[in-house]
Amino acid sequence: MTHIDILDQYQEGNSLVHHLDPRVKLILTLAFIVSVTAVPHGAWLSFLFFLLATGMVLAASRIPPLPILKRSMIAIPFALVALTLVFTSKGTPLFTLKLGSWSLAITQQGAIAFISILTKAWLAVLMATLLSATTTFPDLLFAMRALRLPKLIVATVSFMYRYIFVIADEALRLRRAREARSANPYGKGGGSLLWRARVLGGMIGSLFLRSYERSERIYAAMLSRGFDGRIRTMRAKRLQPTDLMVSIASVAYLLALVALTTVYMEI
Amino acid sequence: MRMLEVLSNQRPASPEPYKSLRFPRGTTRPAIEFHALSFTYPDGRKALHDISLIIQEREKVALVGPNGAGKSTLLLHLNGILKGQGIVKIMGVEVGDGNLGVIRSQVGLVFQHPDDQLFSLTVFEDVAFGPLHMDLDEQEVRQRVSWALTQVGMEGFENRIPHHLSLGEKKRIAIATVLAMRPAILALDEPSGELDPRARRGLIHLLRGLPQTMLVATHDMRLVKELLPRTVVLDGGEVVADGQTARLLKDAELLEKHGLEPP
């Protein structure tokens, strides 16, 4: 049976980064994202130092860099929303586009803001990609729980991750069954658009019903093992000395970077 | 959606003593009793009609019958997931709203599809789910998880993800999830369904080694013949035959009438 593994981003490894406590990794990733966001637009040198940080993590984790870089690109389309800044920001015009009676001025400030946002978004996603590549999903959930995210949300994410593959496999089987019955011996075909839409609607409906019935069975299985509405989990593990050292070093690096940038840009 | 309601309703559990319901060694007493049990689904479909059945401690009983006969429905009555009219007793204690915690720790119900039974992200979390919800301390939970996984021959699978296991492995781990609760009774729904011959053999071997009282709903008549000395035939929600497996399996007419096949 074919499996769908769209979400499995974890890359097996035995490095320092892999062995760090998931709580530490989650907090440091968040701290990195906040720091990147806190730095003003156009702080190119700081961006370089943030990139250096991701580079160090990448090197320490010893995972192949190319897939990571490729995955981190998913941020770019979203950041393109900021493209409007190029035209709407007030400032020194670099050059003006003339479209009939319309004229669009591209300002220097707008261009700097746009490229900065693009870079920041990419840096943030790059670090998040590194986190998901070096931390298993159960560990990430453990970290979320340890950081006191509401249990209901963590449980929902957990069920989602557990069953998205199962449901995707089900969808795959449904599609295969449809394809097996929609052979057209005369080449071109596949039925009218309306017919295909109807089949697709049926598939989605059936997928929903199956999932709904499955949720009832899962709930019965939970009850059978003593679930009474209160989610119980194992206690968190102790932090290791390495975890503390890495945390202190990383936080110091980020703080220094943000502070120096702010001071430098003020002058 | 019922699940979400309950999940969000995080009331503290009443401290319920998980005292053992086991009887003193050497005596045989009823482990499972159904007295005039009937059940009708909310949509009006009659699923069980006037079922009376007594299963002694350490008995291994097959529950056979055509699809829709009510086998799974009957199993869900063992631990109060479904509640019909009539009386269900587990180790002499009547199943009621007040003692579901104790009852559920005594009845290990293994569902037909392991994807329903294994709802956690890792094998460890899944096997630990039962013991954790019995409020055992963590040391004990860890011990029980590794003990249960060893019982089913799956030691070392703690950190695996259920989605990446074979069906045979999932079925074994599904059994471990209830063994970890140390139940007195195992209720299995189609344990050998959809397994390839080798996985099926391994499973039969595994079940043979387990000491618990067993009620097994199945279509696998060879498994019945090899493993379960007593057979109960269910059809249309009623018990239509109950007796020694060896004798029932020779009754071609009876098997034919209720859509079964001799092994």
State the helical fraction of chain A.
Answer: 55-70%
Major β-sheet profile of chain A: 2 strands, antiparallel
Report the structural category of chain A.
mainly alpha
Query: What's the CATH architecture name of the domain at 60-76 and 100-257 in chain B?
Result: 3-Layer(aba) Sandwich
CATH class of the domain at 60-76 and 100-257 in chain B: Alpha Beta
Please give the count of helices of chain B.
11
Q: What is the average per-residue confidence, as pLDDT of chain B, rounded to a whole number?
A: 89
Main β-sheet description of chain B: 6 strands, mixed
N-end to C-end Cα span of chain B: 42 Å
> In oligomeric terms, what are we looking at?
heterodimer
Order of helices and strands of chain B: HEEEHEEHEHHHHEHEHEEHH
Helix- and strand-based class of chain B?
Answer: alpha/beta
Major sheet strand order of chain B = 6-7-8-3-9-10
Features:
heterodimer; A: 267 residues; mainly alpha; 2 strands; flat; B: alpha/beta; Rossmann fold; six-stranded mixed β-sheet; four-stranded antiparallel β-sheet; 35% helix; 24% strand; globular
